[in-house]
Amino acid sequence: MPDLSRSAKPEDDIGTIAWASAGGGPKRDRSAELPSGADIDNPNSRASQRFRTIDASKNGPAISSGEYTVGWVCALPLEMAAAKGMLDQIHPDLPQQDPADHNNYILGQIQGHNVVIACLPAGIYGTITAATVAKDLLRTFKSVRFGLLVGIGGGAPSRTNDIRLGDVVVSQPTGTSGGIIQYDRGKTVQDGKFQRTGSLNSPPQVLLTGLGRLQADHMTEDSKIPQYLSELVQKSPKMMRKKFSYQGSSNDCLYQA
User: Has residue 40 been placed in a domain?
Assistant: First the structure.
């Protein structure tokens, strides 16, 4: 994983940790970044194994709510669809959930971790709504250890830390910050500058140690994102529709930040 202190490049796919979001920005041609790679007809291929696992799990018994340890909250149905597409397995719905829990869920597994995915109510967004969804999630899934808010956001182009369309941003603590900044936790002062009035805790240590491993992997290995996207498209061909496919450089515009 690249160092955020330098400008992002096309091969950089910096990822998201603990209630953060991803961005979009200046022009860049990504037409070559989605290989046809995965062979789903080969029983030994990773893609074939993933597809068979998903098909086999749909009619299996429901997994207990106590076995889910990762909560994934999406702001938009579009984001929830992408999250569902990245599951290695899709689990049956629970037979029942806490009466005070008004969320609807997609359940599944990624790399052996049982994941529960929730979406904000259609047309009702914001930090209060997100907090309510997270609180309700914990009513039913009491064993969830980590909460992730992963979604699409605006680009932040700059000469030093260039965040571009398709990059994934991961936060980490610094000397003066826990790694996550709440955009409305502060006030605008003279000259239009934003002054923070509080701070949030750092992500859990187990996630930060995983981030260190991810950084090391990015220094020594090629990105696996093209492989994952190829598998996703073969598994869910409808995701090649306009909302999910590359829009072309003419639609990737640079605006004054």
Answer: no
